[in-house]
Every structure is written in structure tokens, then in C-alpha cells.
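Following up on my earlier thread - several people asked me to post the actual chain instead of describing it. Fair enough. Here it is, all 607 residues.
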Amino acid sequence: MKIYRLSALVLLPFVLLACSANIPASPTAHPTSRPVATITAPPLAIADIIFINGDIITMDTANPSAEAVAVLGDRILAVGTNEEALYYQGDLTVIVDLAGHAMMPGFVDAHNHMLGEHLLYDEDPLPDQQMAIENGITTSAEFYVDQSILNKFKTLAEARQLRMRLNLYLLHTSNCGEIIGDWWKAYQPNQQIAPNLYVRGIKIFADGGSCKAPAMSVAYPGGGKGDLFFTQEQLNQMVREVDEAGFQVAIHALGDRAVEQAQNAIASALDGRSNTYRHRIEHNATIRPELLPRYGEIGIVPVIFGSYSTCIRSTGESKKFKYILSEEYGAWDWPWRALVDANPALPIAWQSDYPIFNTINPFDHMWGMVTRKQVNTDGSICDPPDWLAAGALRIDEVLPMMTINSAYSLFFDDDIGSLKSGKLADLVILSNNPLHVGSDQLKDIKVQMSMIDGRVEWCAPGDEAMCPSASVTLPSTAQPASNPKVTASAELAGEPAANAFDGSIDTDWNSGNDPEQWIQIDLGDPQTISAIRLTVAQHPEGQTIHQIWGGDTESSLRLLHEFHEFTAEFQVLTFEPATPMEHMRIIRVVTKQSPSWVAWREIEVIE
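Reply from S.P.:
Thanks for posting it. Predicted structure:
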């Protein structure tokens, strides 16, 4: 394996247009909605993978179903008919025939303790990550993170062991209501701190649950109304502090008294503003009827459970369950039907809360939300009483909660949660389409493949035909090739373009200019390229867009990949097509957007 190295900087969106006057534009425009028969121009981009003949749920309201998806690098190139996707087929494109199998976006779990629970006790979290991926979860959020756990997550991420995107919610208080302090102010809102690792928001516990009892407005059958940790003014002040720092706040509120207090605190902080920080209330397990419309009135994002613990009600086990109201108030419990009806336009998000609730399987939660049934410990099915069954949702209401709405709650809806051109290629293949099976069959659906960032991270045994294999494993070091020709749009005297191709990340190419800028390597002869790896040189950190173009001559360059993400100094961006690219002599990296002068520490072109 030969590796050609260049030194360089930035990163990526998905614009299938000619990038600069130095790169040839397509002779004619060709939007994906254009009838295939009228398309005469060759595509600017060639897909790595095209899935055809699928029963595809896109979660894109403008294009809710499709039969094909084309993937280029880590992003979706096209979604539509077979003909529309196959327009982007090249000689090396992998074609996957879904043969009618279902595909949908990867599940987004907006709240759990899946990995952090293990790190808290110095246990290995990676088996649970594998379990989540096998269940189709491609993005997750950890909701009990102090400085020690954050450091452990960062170590995992820097070792490239986080295969799914992970969003951290930093503790302002403990689960017993103790104020931990303002340590979280050392971080920035929505900050990426390592590969696949993001600081997303700040968590506050308003009432009990794992410590003490949820705070209710009426007494429990055994007496007492639970534990509210703060006065209204104290909670108002904490939420205001988080809001003024620009962070999203996520308030744990199980009981209706805590829900009301959390609603009041968020409304006070917003003071009439729209909820641009997407402040959330977690769990919302017991909601008094008059509190239901306030979510939409204030703009609060509710994050809700999936599978209700029906057996504690239907089998008489409720006496063993410590914190549960009498059936007189049963309709206040998990009132999802009433919540949706009171807030028809509100993005309600789903949480597994695993392992607090003992299943992370999205289809268990999906089945529970649609039927309100539960599988008992002996394997029997617990049927809901009428008042509980009345809270059931339709499957078409549940699917957005588990995908695009949860992505919205994590500020990721521009990149994940639906299958749409330009979004990240996070998708799953299923044994059945949830929209096309009976409600009782939902729990039996299996994940056959999970793809994250265009890479297959799980393939069920026996389903290999639907799982395009990953490409190459990149080495950590390599020697530079001999005598490549390196040119750039501009360069500083002490930081020439050749520095981006000298085998060292200690030197860099710096254009000395804002975008748009480019750097190009001429390999001398056409080569077969397996991957391209870029080491970022950038200050300050921020949102960037980088494009990789390639071809055998300057007049035949085509767009190979586009990065569009938050990047920082020394970050590594990797483009690995599903199959090697042949006849590549010219590689050009174009930076369309960056908060700094355009530069790169190292560019590696890998045969």
C-alpha cells in the first residue's frame, strides 16, 4: 500500500456543484427531481454505494418514501427512484439489491446511561455500544456525565473506539439534588471535543427518581408527595444561568409537580423569546392535564419513554412498585396520546433511558408506544387497562420521535434523522417495514444492517448480501511519495504548499487567505486510490466545508467527497470510498468555508 502525503486543513458539507473557476462545471444542471430521460450531462459525483429495490422510509416530509439511496463517502448523494440513484453509478460503484427489504434512518436515542454507567464503575462500555449498534441505534446521548466520566469518554474517542455519535450532558446537579458547580463552563455549547464526541447540554435534576421520589401534586397511596429538590426561584436561577451561557438545559422531571416547576423555569429564562437553545424536559412521566399544552406554548422539547411498565398495573404488581399513583390518576401516567394531541407541531423526542429501563431495542419501545403492552418476566404479554390503552400512539407518530425529532433534540437534525441528499449516511436495513406490519408484529422486527457515516458497523449473520464491505484500514504512518507536483491557490512564504506533502504534521501549508482556497497534488501517472486522509490546521475551531475532487486530468475533475462539520486543530478527516478509485492522477482539496485562513497540516493520498 503506497501513501502519498500532503499537509493541509479543513472540512465539509454536500454541494454537488462546480466549486471554483479552476474546476470544470457540469455542462448542464441536473437536480435529482429532473426526469431521468432528460439528463444528458455526466454526473459530477460518482456514488460509492447504491441501494436499490428497497421499501424505504425516509422521514423526509417532502419525500416520505423511496426505492433507492446513493451514498458517497459518509453522506447521502441521492434518494429517490432506482433510476434517479443509478444516475450516479460508476464502474466501481457497489450496487446492493434490497429485494424489497425496508430501510430507514438510524435510530437516535435522545437519553440513556448506556456507556456512562460502565465508566462510572471502571467497566468496559464497548459491548453495550455494540449492542446498541446491532439494534440500529447510530446516535446516542449520555445523561450522567461529570468531569471524570467526560475524561474517560474523551480517552475512548481519541482512541477511535466510539463508532457511533455520542452527545454528553454535563451535570449541574447530582441525582439527589446536590449542586456540583459550574465546571461545565470550561466547555462551549455544542462543542465537538473528540471524534464522534460532543458536549451538547447541561442536566439539572428537579425531583427524585433514582434518589428519593418523584415530586407529585397528589399523595402516593402510601403517603407523601415525593421530593422536589429546589424552590421555583432556585431552579429559575440555575436555568437562567445555563441559558445565558448559551447551553441547552435538560431538566429531569418525573412527577407532575416537577414538570410544572421545570416548565416555569424555562419560561422564565426565555422571557418571551423562542426556544432557540431547544431546552428540554426529560421523562415527563406524570403530567397533569392542564400542563399538557404548555410545552407547545413555551416551545419546550419533551423527551419521553417508550415501553410502559404495563405489567405493574395489569397483574396487580403495582403494590410492589414504590412510586406509582393510584389508578384514579392513572391517565396522568405517560399520557402520550394527550401530549401529542395538545401539541400537534411539537418535536417530541424518544429516550430508551437504558439501563434504567431494561431494553434498548427500539422495536420494544416502538411496540410499547403503539400497543401499551409489555412482555412479562415469564414471557407472557401484559395487556393494558382501558385508561392506559387510551394513551397509545400511531406508528407514523412514533417513528419521527425515534429519528428526526430526537435528532432535533440533539441539534443534529441538519445531518441525521432522515434520509435526504447531503445528510450523513446513517441508515438501517430492517426485516420488515414498521408502517406495513400489524402493531403486534413491531416487536419482532430485526435489524439486518446498521451503517454509520457510510460504513457498515453491523451486519446480521446471513444478511451479508445487503452489507457492502468497508474499504481499507488506514495505517498510522507512511513515507511520502517521490517528486509529486504540489500547487495551491496561494501560500505564505514560510508555509508553502509542499509542506502539506512532506510526511510531517509539524509543518503546514497556509494559504494566508480566507476561503475559497485550494491545494492540488499531481501524482504524475494515474493511480488507484483507496483513501484520502486530511489533518486539520485551523484556528479558531468552527464549522467548515471541504471538498475533494479527483480525475486523470485537470479538465476531467469530478467531486469525490464533501466534508461539512465542526472541525479543530489536528483533527483527522478521512474519505474512504467503498471501492478503490481508479485512474486518479490529480487530487484537489477545495475549502469552501472555514473560520480561519485555509491551511492543512498533512494530506495523505493512499493507494
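Residues 107-416 form a domain with the TIM Barrel fold (CATH 3.20.20.140). That should answer part of your original question.
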